[in-house]
Design a protein that fits this description.
The complex is a heterodimer of chains A (630) and B (421). Chain A is mostly helical. Chain A is built from 19 helices and four strands. Helices cover 63% and strands 1% of the residues of chain A. Chain B is built from eleven helices and ten strands. The chains are: A mainly alpha (630), B alpha+beta (421). Chain B: One of its GO terms (molecular function) is copper ion binding.
Amino acid sequence: MSTITLHDTHNNDHHDGHDHGHHEQSFISKYIFSQDHKMIAKQFLITGIVMAVIAMGLSILFRLQLAWPDKSFPILETFLGRWAEGGRIKPDFYLALVTIHGTIMVFFVLTAGLSGTFSNLLIPLQLGVRDMASPFMNMLSYWLFFIACVVMMSSFFIETGPASAGWTVYPPLSAIPKAISGSGLGMTLWLISMVLFVASQLMGGINYVSTVLNMRTKGMDLWKMPLTIWAFLLTAILGILSFPVLVAGVVLLIFDRSFGTSFYLSDIVMGTQVLPNEGGSPILWQHLFWFLGHPEVYIVIMPALGISSEVISVNSRKPIFGYHAMVYSLIGITILSFIVWGHHMFVTGMNPLLGGVFMITTLIIAVPSAVKTFNYLATLWRGNIRFTPAMLCAIGMVSFFISGGLTGIFLGNASLDINLHDTYFVVAHFHLVMGSAAIFGMLAGVYHWYPKMFGRMLNEKLGYLHFWVTFICAYLVFFPLHFLGLDGVPRRYYAFTEFEFMQKWVTVNIFVTWAAIVAALAQVAFLFNFFYSIFKGKKATQNPWESNTLEWTTPVEHIHGNWPGEIPTVYRWPYDYSKPGAEHDFIPQTVPYSQTMSSNMPHDFEGNAESERIQKEWEEKQAKEKAILD
Amino acid sequence: MSLRKFISNKTIAALAVILTVFANTSAFAQEAAAGAAATAAKKPIDMFPIYKTAAFYTLLFLLLCLFIAIVGKAMRVYELTREAQDKPAGINWNTVNGVLFVIFLIVGLYGVYFEYTVHGKMILPDAASEHGAKIDQMFNITLILTTIVFIGTHLVLFLFSYFYKNTGKRKAYYYPHNNALERIWTIVPALVLTVLVLMGFLTWRSIFYKIEDPNNKPLNIEITSQQFAWTIRYPGADKIVGKKNYKLITGTNSLGMDFNDKDNLDDQMAEEMVIPVNKPVRLILTSKDVLHSFYMPHFRIQLNTVPGMTSYFEFTPTITTADMQTKVNDPAFKFLFYCSKICGSGHYNMQKVVRVVSQAEYDAWIVKQPKFINNDLRKQFNLPIVPEPAAAPAAAAPADSTAKAATSAPAVAMNKPALKK
């Protein structure tokens, strides 16, 4: 099927590309309402970076509060006004900070910023496609995301403040404005933003899936796709299947909040005022939310895994170990991620029978994750590792994935979760496995594909500085937090001042806050590097990392339609690095086997008798020549 | 020759730059230190507002950036000279990063050891309940297994990074797959996890599916959460916690107890949760407004309180407060329960004391606790008014409940004046 559509697009796109050559694009159609996947990828990335900086700033604010609960910071009042009267953050605003920090990081940075950027950039480039299946929908996807960001941020400028019921916005807290001030207009804006965001994700996701399934270039069968594309494809499928459930939940919450329905509300008395709602259940929201929420975790981490696979393979100069196992483990994670959401609800009063079931499915999901980790390690074994900043970040990603994944074994165990649920142990766990691992995957991607995006190189030394400071500080921030959790310190506590036993953790909090501040400052190195190099970086060569995949066969200067002439044809898998007998230590996917007779291996031909015969004849001929020479 | 000279000049220049930078910074540092010492000696208050200004830290950071920029430039100069001399690149960054990974590994391992031994000692003491001991045991098994994997994989990760770094002399080993190896590392984790799952599953069932022993019936205690307070209700002599209905909640009837239900008439209120040791306790958890979470970490108990739904948790305390105080060597030690589900601005201060005592102490304590019922409520529910003897505790009751509401409100409000300072 793909071959038929393929020939079609070949011709059309060629014609298209020709057309575009004639007229210059206006500034608006080139940089703002662009339909070119490369520009949209850059838009997603830069918006994602801006949002990440904002969310990081919010985290520093609440870390200040946690470290020095009794000190005042006059500068905070200058910026935050009433929310930090006397230079101290108020409890309501503290909760708003953690809520918006979580929402931005999970949805806007690690979902849109990560898969939005790299799916858009790499799906067409690595598969040999001129553009996305629907460039217009792609553009719409970005702009809906952008509006979602603006709506979310606008809640900082309203009187009642941003949503503050935690990023999971559990009703009734999020449904009743009287319960917390953030559940007023701020929550409405949160919900609107989320609906827009999901619409954006669906448009993006549908585009990614249809592009991957229908538009691959000649020769690019599914088993010749780089692991990045496998990850993006499965991520998009996950998103398409799970995001609508969140919208369903959000719509019901909007109804409860604004139209007096009782989907999530029942038997509620605020003070002495009896609310009229009857028959709903707050647990319903949790089911709907986590039916998305858990796949969401994998939506965040799978692109990072895919990017790391590619970066580790390229920079180890070795094929990724167990390509098929990597793909099957991604598929396994995708399927299993739909039946594990209940592990977020072990102690919510859900039927204990379900707790047992969800514990089983949850711990099974550790198996494909373990396989991936071991395969990464095997890829490094006897490699020829080049420590580019991208490679450092990919190694960092593997390290965080291990550290955070292992604590997941505690939390996935329903019995242990009883005491760890909603404590700092959970905070430490997901910041390592979902936060740090995914961010490092994203950074690896930025460092690796920056030359492709901007045609220039990033400064490597600043990259090293950025990596090392961030890597060390991330561990310094999150590792000690496990022990707070083991001491029974709950998360989302405004201050540790009211409990005698928490006093001993204040010094740890101060340490963690300093580490977080240093980590935040280290990002300046990255930001400077990123924005400076767009204009002043060293000009990139066509294939700076000596990589096999198709994106490095496009010219450095971006053109609409990606390849100036014919779309390249693919002959081999993307991981022929350091193949014995080959001239270089990499063989691009576009090189046919007929040009690499000396390095071909029997399994390369996948049982094609004709090719095997030709190879055998060549080898016999070589042997004869050698015999004559001897 | 002249080129050589020029280049060596450049090298010297680069070195000079580095030297000046170090000299300057150390001079600055000395000056700053001297200045700090001087000011500290003369007028110690003066520096403090400076340390508090954001501008001070911004300047410090800019200085740091400048320093990094100068070092970067110096390195660039050095590299260019090496290049011009046709010498191999001065700094081999592959080696640097490889070595850094090994250093990170060693320091990191020490850090993990430090965390486990120092912070690991600051965590909760041994569980004070029957099922908690099982949870602790399973926690320890999981901790040992995961620590082995954690250390092992990190050793491999960072040592491979070091040993297989590019030296320009080697070619990587083409090794695309090995099915036997992959099977091993699929099956082994699967088996280990199966063991963990089975253990977890059995523990989980033993916690939530209890067979009631008719000779040792649990003590029912109802806990009701509301924004930022807990209400504890003891069942009274009949051992049954009476019916309640949220629609009956008023200022005087804060739980909405239905006093037409005879079981309610003897229900008692308490300011702290007192439970007899080694007797099963069945917690009945409800919420009045939003979600809260009843979290009693020393007993390894947590369950959300959900409006419109009642949930139950049964457990048996095994250590009295007094025993625990000697065990942790802290005479001020208290068992607590508090809220662990975000519930609003007072979330961080929603606690009650739990006292585990001997049966005799409990028996003595429980009779002193006031009943919920009082004459106001009797009037409201058309019940016969009880005269004098019961009137004293009855009168205390409403006063108490309002006092409770009042105390919980200032507890939150108390921080506000503090904030305004």
